[in-house]
């Protein structure tokens, strides 16, 4: 009899235990009305925590999902991290008006996920904020993510799974503190995001710590996604960009960086009066399951105003004019077209170079397996068949298996680079 009672208790208790260990956000129907006026479906979710996130006490958080304007299968996902002056609700309300934090506005054919870090004290996007917040910064140093960072990633994964979004087209964006979070959370998770874009990030400490930029040895994270950053040298929140640019360049990470004296701005039309390149790269067309070219040590880069010349009134760019197109990605070779954007494709106040040199690194290769130390051949020619001076050569993959060909001449006439085993 005692055994029977024990069995009944065990069977009735097990579903309760399973439910307690399951993270299951629930709809909050009381807060969804009146947030947007676009006609797109909007859902507000509230949820508790997962034990593995590492929060010291239980808490409740909210995220908001806006659906594509017209129902579609396998739609891409646009993820937004708000600034310190917003919460998730005021962030979403910004999307009702063009010019109000334009980085928060998702395309109509995307799902848009808005995550909150304002409801609970100390739950900023990485636990700290800015170089001036020395106590918070020191508290959150190192490679290990804070609970809020783990919460963001698990929320994104939950949305991808529940709504069957296109897992190859997930994009992360943010403004100010959310821009700092975009760099710090995004760069670390290249296996999730296809590309990221940060609007006037409030410092680069988050990214520097989580990516180990100060470490002598480089960490073998997943290939980082295409990174777009636009910041102002006269923005008091914008510290450390010289360290970010150097680390991204030295590690051959993909960076498109634009700057100018536009302050801590979030209105794209006003920013473009100072630097009209901020939206020139189509970051939302990048796919996670396609190889890409990363450009470093480019001859056409402008001189940074950070750290010592922040009173400079000029605008500038890093890698703004380089483009690529994958032609084929096969088990034994990969081919891609390299070129500079031309006046017919980009209207800008900047002078567009007709030719420039850069080191070319190939990342996210899908089919050709390259091991550290592998020797490969490369061939470089114009599509019409005329080869430039440095048309053939050999290259050795580095200690992480990355292929880099130095000082490639790139012009506004497309040239094909083929690398083979």
Strands of the widest sheet, in order across it, are 1-2-3-5-4-6-7-8-9-11
Q: Quickly count the helices.
A: 8
The CATH architecture name of the largest domain reads: 3-Layer(aba) Sandwich
Overall pLDDT, averaged?
91
CATH homology superfamily of the largest domain: Alpha/Beta hydrolase fold, catalytic domain
| CA radius of gyration | 23 Å
Proportion of residues in helical segments = 10-25%
Domain count, please report it: 2
- Please write the CATH class name of the largest domain: Alpha Beta
Largest sheet: 10 strands, mixed
Distance separating the two termini: 71 Å
Number of E-type strands? 18
CATH topology of the largest domain: Rossmann fold
Beta-strand residue percentage: 25-35%
Structural class: alpha/beta
Overall form: globular
**Helix-strand sequence:** HEEEEHEHHEHEHEHEHEEEEEEEEE
Enumerate the spans where pLDDT stays under 50 for 5 or more consecutive residues: 1-20
